Amino acid sequence: MPNKHQPDSSVFGEAIHYFDDAAARLNLSSSIYRILTHPSRQVIISIPFARDNGEFEVYTGYRVQYSSARGPAKGGIRYHPNVTLDEVTALAFWMTWKCAVVDLPFGGGKGGVTCDPNVLSRGELERLTRRYAADLIEIIGPDKDVPAPDVNTNAQTMAWVMDTVSMHLRAHTPGVVTGKPLNVGGSRGRVEATGRGVMIAVEAALEKMGKGIAGKTVVVQGFGNVGSITAKLLREAGAKVVGISDVTGGYHDPRGIDVDAALAHVAKNEHRTLRGFEAERVSNEAVLELPCDILVPAALENQLTEKNARKIKAHLIAEGANGPTTPEADRLLSEGGVTIIPDILANAGGVTVSYFEWVQNRMGYYWRESEVNDRLRELLRENFDVVWETSKQFDTTLRGGAYTVAIKRVVDAYTTRGIYA
Ligand code: NAD
What we know:
By secondary structure, the chain is α/β, with parallel strands linked by helices.
């Protein structure tokens, strides 16, 4: 196998770690390896926009299209002070495999602006977003690259991008972004889609092991979009949620947490957190180590590390967050017999319903929520089976299986199209 071309200190360099394992399994030629370990296109822009005080500020924005072999690039736009080209590239790289593992006709992309959105007014955020979208007008579009929300961007941000592009093109172009509000072309079921996907993946994994969800104990780290919906749906499916956490700490009740009460608490809480929720308080670290059958890290990256991997009691981990397990922890947990449903499969429900939104935009015909949920289940279950079988075939983990499936699909697309060089 050729040497890695990126230093390990970069996020992208780290991300390549899992890719390398699967690439070795597939005996990729050095030519294909070289192509797949380079982003197709990286764009850096300076974004001038007017502050409320009349001064102009200039922020740096990025869009990376990692691969378009299987279709238009697809991936979110992140607003955060730590956004760098390296991070955006790694995120676009992950999106490539996430789209491929659930067989969506998309490549991988990601965008971001290095900024602290908390110091910007709504008007400033709108002007920043519109200028970012306008500057990318040649490279984004329903057949080119389809952004979506990510950290600190939301449905409103997507409405501004859609409007800006539609104004410039003089044509209504809802398919340029997904994750839009329902009244301007969003899809029913999108808000719940990632958590629903995690629940479907857990159900599928348990079924393969000859078990059911009923009575299983669950701990969920993070109580935002992904964590709270996952907890709610797993409880509705018969599991007992014994631990939840958010930025304010962990909450434990071995008799079972009333997830609806927790959701209602967050909804009425000033900062939309669990602060003040009645349950035994535990630290954020301890919540991960609580006795339970299923652990769902759904907050941040690098939460399961070599330091706590041996203390994890769960036998099944479903990665709701992106990158919650370090490669070392992944090895320790897998050696200890823990089954991990990897992020690119476990949290792919969101991008799957984004795909449905794009399809509905192109048809101009909108589906009922039950239709969205049924199609989501069908697509995730089908591809879960493929990943499961592949991991058995290569005697590897589900993560190894997922990367193997995804990389093979991208390689097959390249091979069929031919490399234009
Ligand atoms: P969110 O902002 O809605 O929620 C994040 C939650 O994590 C919040 O409850 C926050 O309080 C909590 N949190 C922050 N620091 C914590 C800590 N140290 N310990 C415990 N909890 C902590 O974000 P989200 O949309 O739910 O995304 C969560 C993760 O899922 C991210 O990794 C994201 O990239 C990934 N993801 C999200 C989607 C989606 O559709 N929203 C899709 C795929 C992947």
